[in-house]
Amino acid sequence: MHRVLGDRRAIAILLGPALLVYSLIMLVPIVWSLGYSFTKGNTIDGFTGNGVANFSRLFDDPAVHDALWFTLKYAAIVTVGQVVAGYLLALLYVFFLKKSSALIRTLAFFPVVLPTVAVGLLFQKFFQVAPQTGPVNSLLNAVGIESIDFFGSAGSAFWVLIVMDIWRSMGFYAVLLFAGLVDIPDEVLESARLDGASGLRLIRHIVLPLSLPVLMSSLIFSINGTLKVFDSVVALTNGGPGNGTTPLTLYMFQTSFTYSDYGYGSTIALLLTVVCLLVSLVVYRVSQRDLTEG
Amino acid sequence: MAIETPAKTSAGRWSRGLSGNAGPSRRPRTPRRLWVKIVVTLLLVVEIYPLIWMFLTSLKSNDDYLNNSTWSLPTTWQWGNYSEAWTTGHLGLYVQNSLLAVLPALALMLLLGTAAGFALQIMVWKGRSLTLLVFLAGMMVPPQMILLPLFTVYFQAGLSGTLWPLILTYTGTGLPLTVFMMATYYRTVPRELFEAATIDGAGILRAFWTISVPLVRNALLTVGLVQFFFIWNDLLIALTFTNNQDLRTIQVGLLNFTGDFGATQYGPLFAAICINVFGTLLIYLFLNQKVMKGLTAGAVKG
Hints:
Chain A is mostly helical. Chain A has helices at residues 8-36, 53-60, 62-97, 102-109, 116-126, 135-142, 154-182, 186-194, 199-210, 212-226, 231-236, 248-258, 262-293, and strands at 39-42, 46-49.
């Protein structure tokens, strides 16, 4: 009876346009970009073959090392921060606020929908020291600490970036993890309580293992996003001071469009893609092993 | 959500009783409940105060902003900052550009994605799971990987200087998630429905349009909302393809906002940030349950 649902002409008409657009905008350019990695030049001036020079440059370029290290460091800290903050919030929702958490959930979620550029500019002004002392520094002054020039050094700018991205996304992960926690059957919690488990012990021995699957999928989702960080950095620090907060994504952008070197830009993009795939693969493998052991 | 509502009302009454504010319960205030209250208050202050500060600052004059305490209220409420941002700051133009790029991309993406989702989930043919996997792979690849070839193509096709590069790129990069989510929603629609409809002689294409699309109307709104936020908030693609000042989207425009006045005008700058933020906030205010559901559903794609 699947005759009508197997109609090849209909399938072509339904799927064709999407597949065509997807191929032209995503698949073909990916392969094309691979080709660019072996060239030098840009769209306006034309391209010339460059062999594997871009790749050897990639290995020796200190800016790439810095950007790669920054990307990994940022991704690791923000991923852990987002998921841990989200998990704590989710625990708060489920075990302390109980059914009345809907309003708090909705309020804590909203920074996720705000434009990153706006949030970046807001945080820039919120943490600034000049021309006007922002709220954070004036709070520090109030308790007797001198103003800190947060964007004057890469170290402190990095932490403002971390704080901002956790602020933006913890409500999102809270809702994601909340869904996992709600799924834990009441009987399981009840019988654990009868056995004398309570508070932290209940969470550590019962709740945490049971919410491991949703924690792992949050981690995978989070790392996949944080490795590609671009908007927050551009809006908050634009990679500075110097290139102190420049991730691979921004270095690729600058190489391509500020220095018009599409060949090398493509090579950096390729590195970024490989890093994304590798990290996802590792996290996935580890999570699978943990789940089967648990 | 329909299932949730009755449970919520009864549970709401129950927990109100527990918290002891409005309910008749006379449960004593335990330290633990106080602790929860402090945490929740702190959370709300941290989440909401920056926005209040931003709004108040957007109503200050430059002198007021630079010379008075950052905590103070505006000495005079400069509502003119908003019109200044909108006209002198060209924010009106940027919002218009954003709408002109986002809405066509959204419509195209939903149309193509729904048809593809239908073909991949309802239609029966060899290789459909592989095709879905090919679409899914697109979500892993960083957009940096496709920007440079696209730039070349758009340039050579003479499309630079128009909004077409944005519309096309948004459509293409949004398709993986759209196709995946629509295919997931179609899983809840029984195939028999279409077999029965097509026995009467209606073609499957017509059945897709007249029967399946109304059935997934809700899903279309959810996916549309999610994608709207993604595209509206996008910076990378907009920054790459808007080399012309008149084409800037709201995000690119805001990023370069300070440059358009001689010296930085803080009032209008904050007004511009506010317009950007409160636009998305307004949508969230009315559709928050749908947005939350959609965005988290889009995340669980592993």
